[in-house]
């Protein structure tokens, strides 16, 4: 395959996986927690490297998942203790992220593990880092990791769809009928963590937040049916990544930054022109009432 096609596939996998997971964050009003997790997974990655002395992807994913769950647990602990959720998130993610930066400086300064790489990423280089797959040949490692994570995301969502849906819309009712709300919450945060770390090489920890939130928020303005929103957000994520790539190629700018910008622009256009919830539609409805 061509270099350009590999880039589009990688970007589409990121947009699809982040878009679907982001729907649950939107419904749970936990968008800022996604930002926190996208930063604190750095600590999990560093600790995983220090323990295993390996940059193997599976260790990174395990470290990221643990860091995401720990972040969620501490935020929830502080919140239940009387601290406002936004303040708890701000304190936890800055502290854990800073600790990760310190550990890199102290123990991992001589390996390919730096803050800029984790935060910003660079999708332009990912097609050159390949792995040989039997009967297929050499393909980018990012595609293998993103494909595995996407499969895991889809399977977990499929198997726990009822639980995710009920705990997102009405956690009190879910608890009343015996669904372990807290466990489902931690499972979701684990998915957010591993999805985030799988996208580091592509869009980085900061820019992945845009693909976690913007596609889901865009789909939220276009439909009132959750299954449709879930599918639509994945499609929008792919569209954002594709448009972002071609715009970056046209004006010669950062590909990952362009993808995140495209996600924001698409959301803005839908926010203005959405048939039911857009500003223009609301303006016409108000005029009709008057």
Automatic annotation (TrEMBL):
<feature type="transmembrane region" description="Helical">
    <location>
        <begin position="87"/>
        <end position="108"/>
    </location>
</feature>
<keyword id="KW-0472">Membrane</keyword>
<feature type="transmembrane region" description="Helical">
    <location>
        <begin position="6"/>
        <end position="27"/>
    </location>
</feature>
<keyword id="KW-1003">Cell membrane</keyword>
<dbReference type="InterPro" id="IPR001626">
    <property type="entry name" value="ABC_TroCD"/>
</dbReference>
<dbReference type="Pfam" id="PF00950">
    <property type="entry name" value="ABC-3"/>
</dbReference>
<feature type="transmembrane region" description="Helical">
    <location>
        <begin position="173"/>
        <end position="197"/>
    </location>
</feature>
<feature type="transmembrane region" description="Helical">
    <location>
        <begin position="203"/>
        <end position="222"/>
    </location>
</feature>
<feature type="transmembrane region" description="Helical">
    <location>
        <begin position="32"/>
        <end position="51"/>
    </location>
</feature>
<keyword id="KW-1133">Transmembrane helix</keyword>
<dbReference type="InterPro" id="IPR037294">
    <property type="entry name" value="ABC_BtuC-like"/>
</dbReference>
<feature type="transmembrane region" description="Helical">
    <location>
        <begin position="229"/>
        <end position="248"/>
    </location>
</feature>
<feature type="transmembrane region" description="Helical">
    <location>
        <begin position="57"/>
        <end position="75"/>
    </location>
</feature>
<keyword id="KW-0812">Transmembrane</keyword>
<protein>
    <submittedName>
        <fullName>Metal ABC transporter permease</fullName>
    </submittedName>
</protein>
<keyword id="KW-0813">Transport</keyword>
<feature type="transmembrane region" description="Helical">
    <location>
        <begin position="260"/>
        <end position="280"/>
    </location>
</feature>
<comment type="similarity">
    <text>Belongs to the ABC-3 integral membrane protein family.</text>
</comment>
<feature type="transmembrane region" description="Helical">
    <location>
        <begin position="143"/>
        <end position="161"/>
    </location>
</feature>
């Amino acid at each position: 395959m061509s270099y350009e096609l590999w880039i589009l596939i990688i970007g589409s996998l990121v947009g699809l996986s982040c878009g679907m997971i982001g729907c649950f964050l939107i419904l749970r009003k936990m968008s800022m927690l996604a930002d926190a997790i996208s930063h604190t997974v750095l600590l999990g990655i560093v600790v995983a490297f220090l323990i295993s002395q390996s940059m193997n992807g599976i260790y990174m994913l395990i470290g990221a998942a643990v860091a995401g769950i720990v972040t969620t647990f501490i935020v929830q602990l502080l919140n239940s203790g009387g601290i406002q959720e936004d303040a708890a998130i701000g304190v936890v993610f800055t502290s854990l992220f800073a600790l990760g930066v310190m550990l890199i400086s102290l123990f991992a300064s001589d390996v390919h593990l730096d803050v800029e790489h984790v935060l910003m990423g660079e999708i332009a280089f990912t097609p050159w880092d390949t792995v040989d797959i039997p009967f297929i040949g050499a393909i980018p490692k990012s595609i293998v990791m993103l494909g595995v994570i996407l499969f895991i995301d889809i399977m977990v969502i499929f198997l726990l769809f009822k639980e995710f849906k009920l705990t997102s819309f009405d956690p009190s009712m879910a608890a009343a009928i015996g669904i372990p709300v807290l466990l489902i919450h931690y499972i979701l945060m684990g998915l957010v963590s591993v999805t985030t770390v799988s996208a580091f090489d592509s869009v980085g920890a900061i820019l992945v937040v845009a693909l976690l939130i913007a596609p889901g928020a865009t789909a939220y303005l276009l439909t009132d049916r959750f299954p449709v929103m879930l599918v639509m957000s994945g499609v929008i994520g792919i569209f954002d990544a594709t448009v972002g790539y071609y715009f970056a190629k046209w004006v010669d700018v950062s590909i990952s930054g362009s993808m995140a910008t495209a996600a924001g622009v698409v959301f803005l256009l839908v926010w203005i022109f959405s048939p039911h919830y857009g500003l223009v539609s609301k303006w016409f409805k108000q005029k009709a009432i008057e």
